[in-house]
Specification:
alpha+beta; Methyltransferase, Cobalt-precorrin-4 Transmethylase, Domain 2; four-stranded mixed β-sheet; 8 strands; 183 residues; two-stranded antiparallel ribbon; 2 domains; 20% strand; 5 helices
Length: 183
Amino acid sequence: MLNKKPGQRLAYLPEADVEKIAECLVAFANSEGGLIVLGVDEQGQPAEPIWEEEAEGAWRGAAARCRPPVASQWQAIEAGDSQLIGIEVARSPELHSLDDGRVLMRRGLENRPVTGNDVQQLAASKTSGDFESEAVPGASREDFDPDIVSEYFTKREARGTARSGTLDEMLFEIGAVDYDGRP
């Protein structure tokens, strides 16, 4: 494994850094998929050992920053007489971003932000499932976090869309609930 160079489908990260793992998760999911190997520098040399608990915590923290969630799988990687931690990321049919709004793609060795036409082309190449138009079984409007809903409408207002109607009407307008108020 360590004799392979990082590239389009392989990233080496010397540390269990939540930000860098999240960027790789999104970039790989938006591109061809790939493998993140923790505890290895860019030259394929072992870095400081990473404890499994530390790596798992960073992986979970990184996954929480992805919108929508990125499918990834934890795996052990044999490297001579030692074992490394890998995170396999599948190519996704959905468009993913980080919680700060950045959309990334893997280009060679780098996770690069995409803008303008790239985002339109990427979004057009991704498909959305019909599940997005179905009500969530057992969910109700009370399941929404009021702070997040308020933040969403505040940011929407800052972009020039005035609040009109009741909260239920606005949630319906943006597609968060159906006509009967179900998420």
